[in-house]
């Protein structure tokens, strides 16, 4: 007889926010530490789901494959989001889940009848913060979920409370307002600025920043932060006012705003804040790349701003050694103006730095077709030719060594074969001689 539901009902703790008994929990094994997941964390669990009859309808253990999801994001059953946020790493718990927190009135065809209360055994294997960038440079852990689904956009004015720590020591604690994309002006690191468009009003989160998203190789003397330091910021988004989106502005408004954004990007570039400059130039592109203009003059201005923005982005990405992005932005310029020598030159630089010497030389030759007096391009062509010769010489050495090794190996492999052949040949000769002798003796006897 299956009585686990009765045990859970009598001993389980109601862990639902509403305290409506929708999810009851009994801890079978305590966790390894007091630390618990936060909203948005990537969690990894093992689980077994059963009906009140005791029949198993799903089990990661039987599949021998753990399951991962971002907790508190509505990716799984409500009961799971609630339960996992209450668990410690290594904890194993039993959960009694009412239909409204599990599979609802629909159930799950062929597995779970409608309006079923179900039981889960769940083990929290591990959890880690939510990565906000592809390179893992910004990791977020949400302490308090915000309201709604709207976030600040680039150019929005945000009002935040910041607490910055380095190696556990508090170095920054203040209320501050800034425009998203321009946090550098207020001494705010890139990682905090870039996290704004993922936050909601009222949210409090902890951001773990690798050095490139903190104060980089220069550090921050004002806060006594040395170079290449990882940072931790606790950020509360108190309020914000969104900037106008591209579709909310007419073309004239975009063209009027573009020079100021360009100027801001140039300032960041000159100061060596290349990622902040990228944000500004990308804003111009997002505004104008789909615009055509209503006349020759407008079309000309749009083209000029787009060419400028892509060329400046290419220069920024050269500085941070993101050569694929350099090439992509130069390609955009060439599509707009195939006689733009800067685009050909910068694409050549990127290809040269990627050791694509032949392609780079073609780009520098195109520069000379546009501007025959460009001495820098001639110098780069010489470098390409030298690199190609070096590469060819290296290939010759590599292949020569390779062929020498093959020859030596073949030579070593042939001798034993010859010995075996010689032995076989000697054996046959011996047998032939023996037959001849026997025939000779037989003939003499006759």
Give me the strand/helix succession: HEEEEHEHEEEEEEHEEHHHHHHH
Structural class: alpha+beta
Report on the biggest sheet.
7 strands, antiparallel
What's the number of extended β-strand segments? 13
Strand content: 15-25%
How would you describe this protein?
Strands 1, 2, 3, 4, 5, 6 and 7 form a seven-stranded antiparallel sheet that branches. Strands 8-9-12-13-10-11 form a six-stranded antiparallel sheet. Helix 5 (251-270) packs parallel to helix 7 (296-319), helix 7 (296-319) runs parallel beside helix 9 (341-353) and helix 9 (341-353) packs antiparallel against helix 10 (357-370). The protein contains eleven helices and 13 strands. It has helices spanning 4-11, 60-63, 78-85, 190-195, 251-270, 274-288, 296-319, 323-336, 341-353, 357-370, 375-445, and strands spanning 13-14, 23-29, 42-51, 56-59, 67-70, 92-97, 118-128, 130-131, 138-144, 157-166, 169-179, 204-209, 231-241. The chain is of the alpha+beta class and 446 residues long. The radius of gyration is 35 Å and the shape is globular. The longest helix is centred in the C-terminal third of the chain and has 71 residues, at 375-445.
